[in-house]
Design goal:
mainly alpha, Four Helix Bundle (Hemerythrin (Met), subunit A), two-stranded antiparallel sheet
Length: 234
């Protein structure tokens, strides 16, 4: 796959890996080992590791100790379940479910997240704020919320969250996504995400839960606006 020699190694690897992932039909979902990727792309293994970390932060890949690196979110629920729900729910139902789950996840993350986890939250939140379009924004936003779910350290809650967020990703709500993005959603969410992060960083579980609930309620209010296309979804 062609790369621009003037780009920094990490940027070259990120670009090449994104192209590889977009065009793959590998049913295993497994990426080659770091040393193989480094040899193929003619870069050092450090550049490969940095690129994989960036992709992991945004939820594009995930790693399992002793088994390798896989693309896509961890398969905690089946595709059949996700597909079925994606055709039966609307965005406000998704937000109702998230309001029941994510404040709890934020509270637990404030108790359990490491400093490295918090640093990753900041990086991911920054990418959401600078997204170029609605799809890029939603990808980064989902990665931010996934990171908090991961840091909560509760497998049951994480599986519940993953079901909800994957239904959101799978559903054909392009008009709703564009509406939120064009109505300054990325900037407002970034500011609200910062409040969640600070509460987690300060180890304040109640404040983290309250900040997450406030954020999701504001998103819900925005999507319920008078000119929102959500009304056409039934």
């Amino acid at each position: 796959m062609p790369v621009n020699p003037t780009e920094l190694p990490k940027q070259r690897v990120l670009k090449a890996l994104r192209e590889r992932l977009e065009g793959t039909d590998d049913a295993s979902g497994r990426l080659p080992p770091e040393r193989e990727l480094a040899a193929t792309l003619k870069v050092g293994r450090r550049a490969v590791r940095e690129a994989l970390r960036a992709l992991e932060d945004e939820g594009t890949v995930w790693r399992r100790q002793g088994q390798g690196t896989f693309f896509g979110p961890p398969k905690l629920v089946s595709e059949r379940e996700v597909d079925d729900l994606a055709h039966r729910v609307n965005p406000l139902e998704i937000l109702e479910a998230r309001l029941s789950i994510e404040p709890v996840l934020a509270r637990l993350a404030a108790m359990r997240a490491s400093q490295a986890d918090i640093d990753a939250m900041r990086r991911i939140a920054g990418r959401a704020a600078t997204a170029n379009d609605a799809r890029d924004y939603e990808r980064a936003d989902a990665a931010f919320h996934r990171k908090i779910a991961e840091c909560a350290g509760n497998a049951i809650f994480r599986a519940m969250f993953e079901m909800v967020i994957r239904v959101r990703e799978k559903a054909d709500w392009q008009r709703v996504r564009q509406y939120y993005f064009r109505h300054d959603g990325a900037r407002r969410s970034f500011e609200e995400h910062q409040i969640v992060i600070e509460a987690i960083a300060e180890r304040e579980p109640a404040a983290a839960a309250a900040a997450m609930e406030d954020h999701l309620r504001k998103v819900s209010a925005s999507l319920s606006g008078a000119d929102s296309p959500i009304r056409a979804l039934g």
